[in-house]
Amino acid sequence: MDKTKQKAPFKSGFVAIVGLPNVGKSTLLNHIVGQKIAIMSNKPQTTRNKIRAVHTTEKGQVIFIDTPGIHKPKSRLGDYMVSAAETTLNEVDLVLFVIDASEKRGPGEEYIVERLKQIKTPVFLVLNKIDKVHPEELLPLIDDYRKRLDFKHIVPVSALEGNNTESLVESIYNEMEEGPMFYPADQVTDNPERFIVAELIREKVLHLTHEEVPHSIAVTVEEMKRGENGKTLYIYAAIYVERDSQKGILIGKQGSMLKEISRRARLDCERLLGEKIFMEIWVKVKKDWRNQDRMLRNFGYFDEE
Known about the structure:
By secondary structure, this protein is of the alpha/beta class.
């Protein structure tokens, strides 16, 4: 009798990451896939589109979908972001509800819990930022959430430091069923290069500006082409703002702010794409674009509806 050990079946599936803005969803996603896919900042509503990242091992492949933070919308763009997050919940095999372990449950978390009660998809509660709290403080928080929803699994992690993230990934694969490999093993996202480049430029604006400016910008990559020598990738992009005063802030004194945005974005793009890049960025004004459906479609925010 052949007692050769049978190879375990290849598993695959889709996992949505949901939660309030600024709880560390993008940081968690980037850590799991081991590469910067989603942009990060300490400002709310950093993620505007669904970001898809692919995690592949010998045992299987999981496609993670980082959704915009669920919040009370204040514009048509806000409506789109919340809709994008909520419609994802019924399209996946598992939902990760990420919370900030250093914060008590509030109305925002309660809203998401009520939304999760309406779906049949299994839900993991992921307590992020455990590096900010004493372990004893986690138990009352876990008990509080357990009373609100029957979570399939509860996992405390620190996405920033990588604490317990391997255990989380292991638990996710345990929930997946046998399935195909949807993407090549070396692919980490299905978002096009232009989208990633635009997001990296937007991230630099988030890092370098304050108040209303970060929320008032959109970025489009107008052109990406290779130079005649084939060694340099030329990227031409535009940052759109809603007011002339915001344009002045982004350009800065003698163009200093725009130069710094371009420099940081170029370095990140060179690391991501692995090639030499020339980048040129303009700033344009489109008044009140966040409330204009036509502009939102032009910027790619309604392409999934």
